[in-house]
Amino acid sequence: MKVLKIINFICLGLFAGCYYDNEEDLYPANECNTASVSYQSDIAPIIQANCLSCHALGSTVTSVNLQGHAKFSERAKNGSISGVINHKPGFSPMPQGGAKLSNCNIQKIEAWIASGSPNN
Ligand code: HEC
What we know:
The chain is an all-alpha fold. The protein has two domains: about 1-30; about 40-115, Cytochrome Bc1 Complex, Chain D, domain 2. About 50% of the residues lie in helices and about 0% in strands. It is built from seven helices and no strands. It has helices spanning about 1-15, 20-25, 40-50, 50-55, 70-75, 80-85, 105-115.
């Protein structure tokens, strides 16, 4: 962890936002922490940032509403969320017209689905 401490030191000197806390010492920046993924703190912000511009309640873009745990988990449980974010054959690739989600965000969503799509 000495290397991380040095990076930490350099980063702090250059950017206020470039900072390794203890959790990141355990899970370095190039690894994705998918342990204990939470709907509220991990999944909802990903959906908010990448999907709700088209999939909020009352959207005129599509009637597919992904806002809130109940709506999102319904489509997580039937496999369509995993299909669309991984661009699997037979599913409309999402975000529509945009870049694929980052690998880490996909892994977090997959881990949350695998744990039963809880409202945690
Ligand atoms: C730019 C608008 C837009 C964005 C952003 C977007 N979608 Fe969609 N999405 C659509 C439209 C339009 C449809 C309905 C038409 C279709 O199926 O292609 C759709 C359909 C879907 C469906 C149902 C289709 C199926 O094959 O089951 C799911 C699930 C879905 N989107 C998930 C997502 C997720 C998850 C995100 C974010 C990672 C996202 N979408 C981002 C526009 C968007």
